[in-house]
Amino acid sequence: MKPIIFTPYLKSVIWGGDRIAALKNIETDQTEIGESWEISGVPGNETCVADGPDKGLPLSALIDKYGARLLGEKVFRQYGNVFPLLVKIIDARRDLSVQVHPDDRLAGERHGCNGKTEMWYILDTTPDARIYAGLSRQLDPVSYRADVAAKTIMNDITAHESHPGDIFFLPAGRVHAIGAGNLLLEIQQTSDITYRIYDYDRRDADGNPRQLHTELAADAIDYTLYPDYKSKPSELAPGMDRLAACEYFDVRLLTVDAPHAVDYADGCFVIVTCTEGCIELDCDNSVTMLHPGETALVPAERKDFTVAGTGKAVTAHIN
Q1: 243 near 301, Cβ under 8 Å?
Q2: Which among 71, 313, 37 has a CA at the least distance from the CA of 186?
Q3: What one-character-per-residue DSSP string does 282-303 give?
Q4: 98 with 139: CB under 8 angstroms?
Q5: Which of 131, 283, 298, 309 could be joined to 162 by an S-S link, Cβ 3.0–4.6 Å?
Q6: Per-residue model confidence as pLDDT tens digits over 158-170
Q7: What are the DSSP E strand ranges found in 52-163?
Q8: Least confident window among 15-19, 113-117, 283-287, 296-300
Q9: Average pLDDT of the chain, as a whole number
């Protein structure tokens, strides 16, 4: 199998902007695009193969067809036909709601699904853009509920200036929000469970207040104070930096100015998103081109491949 490109699933939302279509160089009449789901196996929001012999197949059907050839033996044994990662590009023209995600245990008990640990890699920002991540002062469930009721919860969350190249790792339980002006790449567990804590008193398209999940969130929040909520890359090799690593994903940044062999996935699929320039994926002398905002899934059976061209790419796999 060659690297697989999916038709992105574009979502219009009240806080969305106009930068995703520009980044991906696509024409669309859709407005307020806040999210481009690049690779998704979330039921009801699956991405489908864009071209080739499997054109139109949703991701779950692709896994049914190829199994371990696509995912890798270890991943296929663990996850079956559930693709374990969800990759999005997010454009926040306005502030997103303050949220928290449950961990696997809580999500399993309440919803019968995975929790959500995620990471953000900032692609672009406007002046004064902010990321909100982590508590700025000690809370407990009682003081948390009081501050939500008083609408002062934003005073309890650490605000970070955000700039292109910044990294935020968000384990399940960490309170967070994407501030206006951020364009970012998000890599997360496959889960669509979000507890909304605060939404600036906004209303939906029908004029109703957006639903909050105050009580569900109270048990999901990690109330621990940490010294720093912004992550730093670690160099693994010339041109290769690790951005985030946990039991759910290993995310790396490749800076490409010469052919670069990729062989670190240990029999797992590799997701590649071009963030700058033009990236070439060479698998057995078959070349797939990626431009900014484009994402490809390299099947596990193509364990060793070469990244060439000039630019930057973010990769994700499971160790």
Answers
A1: no
A2: 37
A3: EETTEEEEE-TT-EEEE-GGG-
A4: no
A5: 131
A6: 999 999 999 999 9
A7: 85-91, 98-100, 118-125, 130-135, 157-161
A8: 283-287
A9: 95
